[in-house]
Request: fold
Amino acid sequence: MFRILDARRLASDVKWFRIKAPLAARNRQPGQFVILRLEEGGERIPLTMAAADRESGTIELIVKAIGATTKHLCELEAGDDIADIMGPLGKPTEIHACEHAVLVGGGVGTAVIYPLAPALREAGCFVTAITGGRTHDLVVLEAELRSVCDDVCVTTDDGSYGFKGNVADRLEELLSNATKPVGVVYAAGPVPMMRAVCDRTRPHKIRTIVSLNPIMVDGTGMCGGCRITVGGQQVFACVDGPEFDGHEVDFDELADRLTAYRTQERTALERFEREHGHACASTRLTTA
Amino acid sequence: MAMSPKDRIKIQRQSMPERDADVRNADFKEVNIGFSLDLAQTESVRCLQCKDAKCTCGCPVGIPIPEFLERIADNDLKGAAEILLGANALPGITGRVCPQEEQCEQFCVRAKSKNGEPVAIGHLERFVADWARENMDIRQICAPATGRKVAVVGSGPAGLTCAGELAKCGHDVTIFEALHTVGGVLTYGIPEFRLPNKIIEAEVDRLRQMGVKIVCNVVVGRTFTVDELLTDEGFDAMFIANGAGLPVFMNIPGENLKGVYSANEYLTRTNLMRAYEFPEAETPIIKGDRIAVIGGGNVAMDSVRTAKRLGAKVATLVYRRSREEMPARKEEVHHAEQEGIEFQMLTAPLRILGDENRWVRGLECQRMELGEPDDSGRRRPVPIEGSKFVIDCDVVIEAIGTRANPLLTATTPDLKLNKWGYILVDETGATSKPGVYAGGDITRGSATVILAMGDGKRAAASIHAFLTANAECAVAR
Ligand SMILES: Cc1cc2nc3c(=O)[nH]c(=O)nc-3n(C[C@H](O)[C@H](O)[C@H](O)COP(=O)(O)OP(=O)(O)OC[C@H]3O[C@@H](n4cnc5c(N)ncnc54)[C@H](O)[C@@H]3O)c2cc1C
Ligand code: SF4
Ligand code: FES
Reply:
């Protein structure tokens, strides 16, 4: 059992957790993830570790409530237990030392790029973060980013806060005006957003590393469910990734494969909401 | 019970009682019911008690087969169980999954005579093991603690066997398993209709009683490297048995359409994650009405029979050679036929066809004929011109093999590998790294449960010798 030590809501549907998981914490490097299973009969889902502390044996996760499992997780509080946490998994992020590194996070993808900032700064980069959401309420980790980056730009699709537009538009603006030439871009978020980022960096030939989120089961390379196509080659995101050269990724295929269980996901969500209806209503009240 | 060989010869092989094919192909309960005491005794009397028992030579762990069969005939089941367990710690498993027709039973003299059938050694092994599990205190007495710590990586048959043997010798054993539950392929791969989980659980309970510690959710190579376990964590020796987990895909067009699975994923979703109980169990699976499984081994057979149980109207096995070359256990092929599986033999898939939404809609294939024998000695299938056709299906499962999982070996550079990435070991199970031993599929490529167990046992003896400079374990079974 893995005990939740702290839990805090970052946005209406995004929650931050600090969890006792000494084994996952001990060798964790930025970019790596865990697979967790909430309880007996639960699904195994991958989540990026936003941070980890070897001394205290804790890891931090930032979770957006989307499906049945993440909704269930977002209802848990300090003192609750998680059945299984396995990790660290995946290859650590390749830290590309250059004059100017840009981190682009869409929604909860911000949790994936946020831990890269300290490592990049240590490598001597000037670090700009671009984060965004549909609306102000969905922007997460802005304060945290400000504490670890040299510059932070926030975007909202509806213009309710910061730059009006999406993160890719903001990136484009930055690329054409940057005084310090951008040597690398790291992007994490929904597939269309990562694709858009890659489309903007491609003409500039800027190395762009994306963190991919295919469906996973075991996370050890055993099932092949997380396979994606990069540079025309089949690779397994859990062991060969999760980060890849964005200019080589087949995003259409990834986006399509992510929809494979849409019907079942709806069934699971309906069942979850039926069974946890009461709890849902109460969280809505507390966050309102 | 003295019966003349002539009388023994007259007895026909007893068949295994099994659940009705039309009932069982809709659930995951075990197909075989097991011998009754009567059947077991009648069958065991068929054994001619050969002086020079060839069957025992055919068993990779050398079970003294005539001896245990004689005890059954004499109604001394406890005696039979003691003999069996002395040579094989997991007879309830091997009795169910060993390819007996290529091992012990292949060498049985009774199979040599015209129309002769071998003694049903596997069924009898299972009978005794099940009896022992229910009626005997199989707790093992362990030697006094030696204070030496051994890490076992992976909880498949190789790891479980090695852990048991080492605990018996008084060593402090910890098994590290990547997944959330133990058993390796026995749990996530082989379905319950062939090998119920309770048999694996009983074995794991026995190991726990012997003081073996089991830590799940640890991926050696990531959570700890091999070197960290040996230095920081103070293990004196290690046995690596992490299996051959990486699925191979055929590399034909259409493999990334929705509805295409590796057998590993399909079986893991079903067996480990219990997707057949969805949504009570939360892991989904694409069920499909018409399923095509590519391959001819046990893995393919398990997948196609699972598909039937998940509700497929048509479940087809597509294999590029003929039935004779299929590497699957005979019993599974026979059961699959009874359960209504369709066989498309001498058929090679060319590509997977998708609809406009990228869902699988068919498998384009080509008919083959057998040509000259290839390196493996099997006749090579060659395509027949102009024989393309499409199998309509909405799910395609590829069960064409696995490769070595590089996760652990990539972080242990001083571990010597062969050209396919499997760990090299000598005849004692030792790797190129002092104190580190390996066995099972990670040294052999996809092999069998009994070979993995044999490796675990051999490595345990070597590790014991390495730790104590003494080849004999203080407590025999
Ligand atoms: C579907 C299927 C059906 C089969 N049917 C039969 C049959 O009927 N008869 C037969 O004899 N054989 C059969 N086999 C083959 C047989 O199961 C294998 O040969 C045998 O299980 C190998 O045992 P093992 O202990 O080497 O590895 P495995 O059983 O593969 O176990 C390895 C374990 O190590 C874990 N692991 C992997 N990497 C790590 C890591 N880095 N750190 C920690 N743990 C790790 C895995 O999660 C797994 O639990 C079948 C195989 C499959 C897939
Ligand atoms: S372990 Fe396998 S080969 Fe040995 S006697 Fe049992 S069934 Fe036969
Ligand atoms: S999640 Fe199974 S191979 Fe990557």
